[in-house]
Q: What sequence folds into this?
């Protein structure tokens, strides 16, 4: 698509999809002529090419007001509105996704972009269309009729056409589609492209979000300003603080009054207002000025933000300012380690990377302690690296802590009533990913679940567990 001088996209003129360009995606090879024709008819209904919109498709914004009659009458009866899952992903949110079962549950994961040429050229929307086509092929192989395909995939193709949605992405996207069910979650980390069609959703890529509850504050102080940030394992944002002094000159002023040289302390912050003092032989020394400035920053932060908080606060400032603030602050959750230097002109992304590295032991604490407990119990029969033992134990609430290898997949099925587990070396009809199913069951029964890199896994196994009994 081309853009005009205002940055708006205009579709190319030409034939709709089905003209042969889609075959370049490699999604239709080996399909019989009848299936190919049916595939093209359904795709053609919604698209006119890899990155073009069919002119006769009614676009529906995911947040529009559906109570307006003039819009409602254009919707097909089976259209469903995409609903966002809370980005902070509570346990209840996770359980809603992991326990949903239907004949055809479609899970799509893909990397996404917040800005850049990828957004301008709609690369995320194009990739999403390819994933929908991949899901369509799998559904056809499962024997779905044309009307069933349309019913399930229509909302996905409508979302693919929503330009506003694709301009509001994070680093990753997960989409969950089934009959009368359509959810998506924007992820603060990148994920691999994946299409999973089964009788349940694939939720393992959400585990890092579920397990990363740790937050911290970063306070960047210089003589010119003090800025507070709130951060977690995936990003950081500035926290506006009402009344924060605009540097040391906002707290300590020198003025002439009645032929007497005075300095004035006080600002628009949370202190006690302006106070005037005679200075005798000269102005206060630099250390006294900084101390008054630190008092004002601390009192403002305490009043506006920190008095009810109990999360770590990391300090970033030149060396001599840090001990002055630590000595005078009311807050009792200051991190021992610090960022030393002048960060007044540092970008937020660069600041976050440095702060995240300092806080890495804090984020790794739960995982590290869980692995230590696993090691301490390795000799008493309460640990296992055998999937044949671990998977049933997850269903029967025996697992206290579960470790799964990132990207591990074991195909098979488990009959909970008969306690019968069948695993296959490759996916067979009727199989599901038992690593995904076991992790969902473990969380449902209150276990802690950690996703680890291969070199972090006990014994290099795809699964490991510490049992309750």
A:
């Amino acid at each position: 698509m081309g853009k005009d001088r205002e940055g708006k996209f205009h579709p190319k003129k030409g034939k709709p999809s089905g003209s042969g360009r889609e075959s370049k995606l490699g999604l239709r090879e080996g399909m019989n002529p009848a299936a190919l024709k049916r595939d093209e008819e359904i795709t053609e209904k919604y698209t006119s090419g890899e990155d073009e919109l069919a002119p006769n498709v009614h676009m529906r914004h995911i947040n529009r007001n559906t109570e307006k009659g003039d819009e409602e009458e254009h919707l097909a009866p089976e259209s469903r509105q995409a609903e966002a899952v809370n980005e902070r992903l509570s346990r209840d949110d996770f359980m809603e996704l992991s326990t949903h079962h239907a004949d055809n549950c479609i899970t799509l994961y893909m990397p996404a972009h917040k800005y850049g040429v990828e957004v301008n050229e709609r690369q995320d929307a194009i990739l999403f269309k390819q994933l929908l086509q991949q899901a369509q092929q799998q559904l056809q192989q499962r024997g779905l009729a044309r009307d069933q395909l349309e019913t399930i995939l229509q909302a996905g193709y409508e979302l693919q056409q929503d330009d506003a949605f694709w301009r509001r992405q994070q680093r990753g996207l997960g989409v969950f589609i089934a009959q009368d069910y359509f959810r998506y979650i924007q992820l603060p980390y990148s994920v691999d492209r994946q299409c999973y069609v089964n009788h349940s959703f694939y939720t393992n890529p959400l585990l890092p979000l579920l397990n990363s509850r740790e937050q911290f504050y970063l306070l960047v102080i210089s003589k010119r300003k003090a800025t507070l940030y709130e951060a977690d394992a995936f990003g950081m944002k500035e926290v506006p603080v009402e009344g924060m002094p605009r540097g040391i000159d906002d707290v300590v002023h020198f003025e002439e009054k009645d032929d007497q040289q005075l300095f004035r302390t006080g600002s628009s912050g949370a202190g006690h207002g302006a106070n005037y003092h005679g200075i005798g032989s000269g102005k206060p020394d630099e250390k006294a000025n900084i101390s008054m400035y630190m008092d004002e920053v601390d009192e403002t932060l305490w009043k506006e933000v920190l008095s009810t908080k109990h999360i770590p606060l990391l300090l970033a400032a030149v060396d001599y300012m840090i001990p002055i603030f630590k000595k005078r602050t009311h807050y009792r959750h200051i991190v021992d380690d610090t960022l030393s230097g002048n960060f007044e002109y540092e970008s937020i992304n660069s600041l976050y990377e440095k702060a995240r590295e300092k806080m890495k032991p804090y984020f790794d604490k739960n995982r590290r302690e869980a692995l230590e407990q696993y090691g301490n119990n390795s000799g008493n029969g309460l640990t296992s690296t055998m999937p044949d033992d671990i998977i049933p134990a997850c269903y029967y609430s025996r697992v206290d802590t579960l470790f799964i290898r990132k990207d591990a997949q074991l195909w098979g099925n488990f009959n909970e009533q008969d306690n019968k587990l069948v695993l296959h070396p490759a996916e067979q009809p009727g199989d599901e990913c038992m690593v995904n199913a076991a992790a969902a069951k473990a969380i449902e029964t209150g276990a802690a679940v950690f996703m680890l890199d291969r070199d972090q896994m006990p014994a290099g196994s795809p699964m490991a567990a510490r049992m309750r009994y």
About this structure: The chain has 14 helices and 22 strands. The chain has a mean pLDDT of 82.
